[in-house]
Specification:
Layout lengths: L1 H5 L5 H25 L39
Length: 75
């Protein structure tokens, strides 16, 4: 990733790699939430705008987004 950035503008390969890593991180975060959050517990999760774990969370998790959905994820 560092070498990709040295060239200046991000390349398609860099962007694809960055998205793949972000997706893998989101998968891991969702998995850890599912493994550690017990019934009737509440958790807080702070993520950057590029993260998107909503679809990766267990269906029994109630998600509250007090600031609304990030731009591009309104649907």
């Amino acid at each position: 990733m560092t070498q990709s950035l040295k060239s200046g503008e991000p390349t398609d390969v860099y962007m694809a790699t960055a998205q793949k890593l972000l997706d893998q991180r989101d998968d891991y975060i969702a998995q850890r939430i599912d493994e550690t959050l017990k019934d009737n517990q509440m958790g807080l999760l702070f993520l950057g705008l590029k993260h998107n774990i909503v679809a990766k969370l267990s269906k029994d998790i109630v998600l509250i987004e007090p600031l609304g959905k990030p731009p591009g994820q309104e649907a």
